[in-house]
Amino acid sequence: MLLEFKMKNFKSFKEEVDFKMIPARIKDLEYSLITKNIKGNKVKALSCAAIYGPNSSGKTNLIGGMEVLRSIILSGNIMNKENITTPNTAVNNLELIPNIKNSEKEPVSFYIKFISQDLIIEYKIAIELGKFLEPNYDRKIVEETLYINKKLVYERTNQLKIGKIEEIKNFLIENFSNDTAEIIAKTNLDTKELFLNGIFKTLYSKKIYDIIYEWFKEKFRIIYHADKMYITPIVASNNEGKKYYIDSILNSALKDFGLTSENIAYPINRDKEQTEPLSMVKIDDGTVVLPAEVFESFGTIRFLNIFPLIVMAIKTGATLAIDELGASIHPMAIMNILNIFHNDEINKKGAQLIFNTHNPIFLNNSLLRRDEIKFVERDENGSIHYSLSDFKTNGEKGVRNSEDYMKNYFINKYGAIKNIDFSDILKNMEGNDK
Fold it and tell me: pLDDT per residue over 328-360, tens digit each?
């Protein structure tokens, strides 16, 4: 589960942003917290986070930064990527990352803290990418650190420092030799390759590398521009010989949501890379099959692509970050999803949901804790981030859990809102045309 994510000099975030899934010291919805026992100590995390802010404030960039770090970890280097299917162009072209207003060649940095297989893992990387849009800049890794259970494993800057290896002795490779590994490691650093994916994996601990890699691959799912995302189901082997695959769980949820057709089915055609959903429509003479895109509402299409991700997260205990989760989906459906993530009888494996939204209906003390309500806004230096729990409980700006969050948001008590008035533009439209 995710505990904390930081980044600096990333797109609209010039200064460091610290996104925490660690609970604040408040007593809101205490039943909704996820608790893990790590070496006899209880570690708690938030199960949800809703990110609010005006357009172009940086909400999408926050989730986009998570995807960029994920891509770097999975690829093992800081080169531009090819053949990665994501609308997040910063994943493919790292020269688009540095803050456009930064006149100095300041490194881009990422930090993440998470729990996997009873280990508290902290990883940081800082990369020199030059200024914004310098594709030919000789980029390099200037810092890379790894902590396991608060103990330094390695620190890489212009030199390499190995921590207390005995802290990870149960995870070391067979016939491990500290002296040999350290000599080889210090003389074979590549400024464009992650120490984690190369030398550390080979000479120190493939087990720890696998734990980290698998968490990023399977347990940290980022959906950037959810409206452009399509899910193709995995067809089980017992469907051999059948023409269509019907997911009973998905269809049950769709019928609660408001499905127009009888069922949503997928053609069993293994030659196709993308399997399009089909609407099975009952008529007098039987059932006809139509493309769901032309028969169902846009909201239904969005939901049938989102819901399998929710199921996956609950089943596996994944952290799911979705850009614009609520677009075209009724807020009652999103409310129910939030309640599912807060329900420890359903969310038994500690899944987490992070999403950005413009819908103020979720600003409700019975739905979200104050530390689960996040804000992003822009000032003269770029995007900044804070939580509702960062406000004190007393004074003019104080926030108590008994307040009407939505009302206070619209009267600009919390910031992260922008007054917009197009009336003068439209009034002067005729004169401008002349």
Answer: 888 999 999 999 999 999 999 999 999 999 999
CATH topology classification for 1-225+323-434: Rossmann fold (3.40.50)
pLDDT tens for 197-223 read 999 999 999 999 999 999 999 999 999
Predicted local distance difference test score (pLDDT) of residue 272? 54
For the record, the structure tokens of 104 come out as: 């100095």
Decide: helix, strand or coil at residue 357.
Answer: coil
pTM of the model: 0.91
Which whole-number Å values give the CA distances from 86 to 65, 68, 299, 354, in the listed order?
Answer: 13, 11, 21, 18
DSSP states along 215-277: IIIIIEEEESSGGG----PPPPGGGTT-SEE--HHHHHHHHHHT-SSSEEEEE--TT-SS---
| 85, pLDDT greater than 80 | no
- Asked whether 367 and 373 are in contact (CB, 8 A), the reply is no
CA 135 to chain centre: 26
- Percent of the chain residues topping a pLDDT of 70: 94
- Residue 51 · residue 357 · CB < 8 Å: yes
SS3 content of the chain, % helix, strand, coil (to 5): 35, 25, 40
How far apart are alpha carbons 388 and 338 in whole angstroms?
A: 18
The two beta strands, 220-223 and 108-116, are: unpaired
Length of the chain: 434
The count of other CB atoms within 10 Å of the CB of residue 4 is: 15
Average pLDDT over residues 287-297: 89
Q: Which two tokens stand for residue 283?
A: 């008529």
- What is the domain partition of the chain in residue ranges? 1-225+323-434, 228-299
**97 contacts: CB under 8 Å, gap ≥ 6:** 9, 10, 11, 68, 90, 108, 129, 132
